[in-house]
Amino acid sequence: MKNLPIIITILSFLIGNAQFNESAPWMESLNVTERSEPVKFQEIVDAFNIYWEDKDPNVKGSGYKPFKRWETYWQNFVGSDGYLPSNQEYWNSWEEAHYFSTSNTNIDESNWVSLGPTTFLNRDTSVSNIGRVNVIVQDPVNLNIYYAGAPAGGIWKSTDSGNSWTPLSDNLPQIGVSGIAIDPNNTQIIYIATGDDDAGDTFSAGVYKSINGGTSWNSTGLNTSNSPSSMNDIYIHPNNSNMLWVATNNGIYKTNNGGTSWIQTLSGNIKDIKLKPVDPNTGVFDGTIYAVKNDFVNNAYTYRFYKSTNGGNSFSLSNSGLPTSNSGRMAIDVTPANRDVVYILSATKSNGYQGIYKSNNSGSSFTQKANSTDIFESDQAWFDMALAVSDTNEDLIFTGVLNIWSSANGGDSFSKINSWNVRNASYTHADIHFLRFYNGDLFAGTDGGFFKSNNNGIIFTDFTTGMEISQFYRISVSQQTSSRIAGGTQDNGGFGYDNQWSNYHGGDGMESVVDPNNDNNYYGFMQYGSRLFFSSTSGQSGTQVFNGAELDAQNNGTGNWITPLAVNKESEVYSGYNSLYKFNGNGWDAISPSFGTNIDILEIDPINPNNIFIAINNGLRKSTDRGISFSIQTTFDNNITSIEVNNNNSNIVYVTTSGFGGGVYKSNDGGSSFTEITGNLPSVTKNMLKHRPDDVSNTLFLGTHVGVFKYDDISASWEEFNNNLPNTSVRDLAINTIENKIVAGTYGRGIWESDMGTIQLATNDLRIDGLIDPSLNSVKCSDFSPIVNVKNNGQNLINTIDFTYSLNGGANSIYTWTGTLNSQENIQITLPQLNLSKGKYSLDIEATIPNDTFSSNNSISKEFFINTEGLVGEVNDFELSEKNLISYNTEGGDSVWERGAPTGSVLNTYSSMFNVYGTNLDGNHPDNSKSYLYTECYNLSNISSPVLKFNMAYQIEQDWDLLYVEYSIDEGNSWLLLGEESPNWYNSSRIAGDGIANDCYNCVGGQWTGVNTTISNYQYNLNDFTNESSIIFRFIFHADYAVNFEGAVIDDLVVEGTLSNAEHATNSFIVYPNPSNNIFNIKFATPTDFNFNIIDITGKTILSRKDIDNSQNHFQLNMSNFAPGIYFLKIESNSVYKNKKIILK
Fold first, then answer.
1. Nearest Cα to 445, choosing from 456, 430, 455, 459?
2. Where are the alpha helices (DSSP H) in 536-649?
3. What burial class does residue 665 get, using C-beta atoms within 10 Å of its C-beta: 0-12 exposed, 13-18 middle, 19+ buried?
4. How many whole angstroms separate alpha carbon 915 and alpha carbon 754?
5. Is beta strand 522-526 parallel, antiparallel or unpaired with respect to 509-514?
6. Structural domain boundaries enclosing 788
7. What is the number of domains present in the chain?
8. Each residue of 204-213: pLDDT tens digit?
9. Do 917 and 1049 belong together in one domain?
10. Can you tell me the distance from the alpha carbon of 1033 to that of 1025, in angstroms, rounded to the nearest whole number?
11. What is the residue-wise DSSP string for 261-317?
12. pLDDT digits (tens, 9 = 90+) for 667-724
């Protein structure tokens, strides 16, 4: 945001403020154009709420959501007087911030780089996309050059027909674009009409002009000081490059001198203008211009059609044949196929479909076409409505509101050519803002991006890749690595980043959190907290785990548009509706009493999770008992926009408040009293404040509508932190301490990342940076030694570190490391070996040094599993408890997989003996569940023709619920799908979002789904894994949020194969149980005679047996006469030796 290539002219006159789209039906009651004073923000909100009292806001395309997006964005701008800033005040804020950066002598250490998304992995199967595009224009000379305008992402240029894009306006004072015009006589000259005309995501800063193809920009005479608050279409005279017209919410403005000065030639709210095509014989434009205007007629507003025949110097009403009342919006289009033809698409004042009208006499009169089909499918035409006529066929027209429709007979009948929720060949994202033909190609601008068809809509190609225009509400970053990010976007759902982007849920993605202890786990809300989505794959896939109807049933209603969502250091997830709630794995449990209104902000103390802060309007409340009770702490003049608890001191709390006049406040007594630290900060909105951990100077980062600012206790002043960051609103910030990164979620330019800069080190500070082994949810197939990554984060040398660690909350063990650890140096320290039996464990580790400044960064916990070695060829019939398998649920609680006798009404059979593993043995499985069942570890390295076999029966909801198998060859650190649809294996190959039907949201490309209640054999050839010495398989049962059946039962699990020689026979034996109180069972893959010795930890042989007849393949080793401890079993057969450690309890 530095070295700005613009020239600004400052004038004193001011028009309008950041008001909502005046075409919205609830705005009529406010009579905006007839008022002498601005409208207060709450007046607009109240008018909206009254309008919707008798309407259903949940109907797709109702127009409800676009307003809530506007309300949520602009509420942070509201001052204590209740008004939104005027254009001039907004510009003054930008100018103040700009001069602040140029006058600040401190070095800005930021180095922001873009992280996207510019595309994502599951894009071909997802109905979500990148972000909204308002307008696309093709260069009239070089047809490979496109320009696209985004409402909050600026103007983008492509020189290769849309295959790649470059941003052109990142340094303008405001980067929303709704209109683009290219000089046909010199295509290096480009004009843009700024702001967001449809939803008000950005205000208009006037018309800007470039004379070098968009490399740099100059303001024109219609600029920040005198521009109306909204602009849309802009056109250049085809024969006179100095003459232009721009449509605004305050009239049509015309320039005769290339933008130096402008005059208003038609007053009122102008929603669309078009120029009559040039005479094809002479190439001359005859000066005819068409416009639609929102007129106040008979005490009500309605759109009417106007026409100019003198180059826009004056306009006359020409409404013959068009609606005389009740028009809520009109769109115009013309065609060079017949320059006398004009089409009008009109919406009712309730924003439904009103009609198609055609003129054959240059707009002197119109005839309504016969079509009566509802081609809008919605009531949101005030937000998006588009019309295009083919440039080669006057009867071929296209319309767009929710989806795109076409007519081949001039509007007498229409056919729907795509659906927003099916990603097929004709797919475009929902909500069509722009349609226009260029040289036979149809261009579409939607809420998801730019699509183009070269065959009249049969196939649309997505050309949004490369545009970074996502509008993020909230973000969260992993505490382990900055390469894992979760975030929610406007109308394009929830995104997950794990070095690559994926979309894991739809709708409007809202608050998102990454589990601090398991950064595979992302949680993401949709609008109002209506649905909670969960991903256990770092956002690569997700499932709905909560439906807001459950809260409605409790008469508690819904949350805010952005419903607060937070996770504490113990991985407990909380949300703020009108009470504080805690997630139980399947839904929400109310923790606090109702507050009578919704919680706006939720913050959990990162050190002490008992401390929870909430904000409701301008009041701060605090709980010291994990949300059971709250007390009011402080009331501020303006509404609270963010709360932040110091990461190293629970007594220090920060608060920011709304409006340019809002402040930044600090408390040193846990929130009881506050001191303002706004200081030299420019007059900006304070969206989000974050504290940098492990910093003795307590650095703060503040996200604002003009970028990021930085503060620390030592300088006690603010400085800019914006190198290379576009001039866009930063809605959220997140910090990864280990990698020294700060991540910004912007509302229009995606995700950005920067180093946090240098830090003042504490005198003494030890930090645990991670647990290398075990990794989270790893499955260890043998004993192991934990490995801890620690960093000397202080100034002084460290020579001694004391480690205290425990398993499952049991007794502590102590280990002391001695050595040399220099300042800022990392080292991996190996703890003593763990000798554990099969099961699930939680390992808690704390590291300490003398006089450590920050104790909050000294501990870490990881959950992992200890597995046993499986015997190739042994059938596990699940009859013995010693052969239990490991199982667990992603959402916690008791595993859905159970061992025992099946007694369901449908699934009640087994293939041998009595027991099976099943998903609830006596009835239906639960909803909202993802449950894992692990096999033992198998060594296939010397096995030929290995095959995984089992018997199974299932009753699973078709396509909504599913079962599949994954494998791991790295002790559970990573998993891959085993196989694909084939005989004796999966019966489905569908994948989420494949466009076949509106289901299969959890499908992975290979799964069992549907019904086969006859227990049948399934098998999979493992020849591809014959080099693997330790492979594990797991069955994954995934149920969605509604409708359940009995699930599945599995029996007689085995990995078969041929042992290559006697050595392999000796290697293939198991000992169980291990550990044991006295008896150890020894079993081989095939009956084998053997000798054995028992050796204690001193190396002494304490027991020896020879020539054991093992024809029954079951030998019991009795160790009851020996003391508990660790021993080594040494087995010899056919001159081949094998050792195994055994533990006597």
1. 430
2. 549-552
3. buried
4. 56
5. antiparallel
6. 766-866
7. 5
8. 999 999 999 9
9. yes
10. 12
11. S-EEEE-SEEEEEEEPPPPTTT------EEEEEEEEETTEEEEEEEEESSTTS--EE
12. 999 999 999 999 999 999 999 999 999 999 999 999 999 999 999 999 999 999 999 9
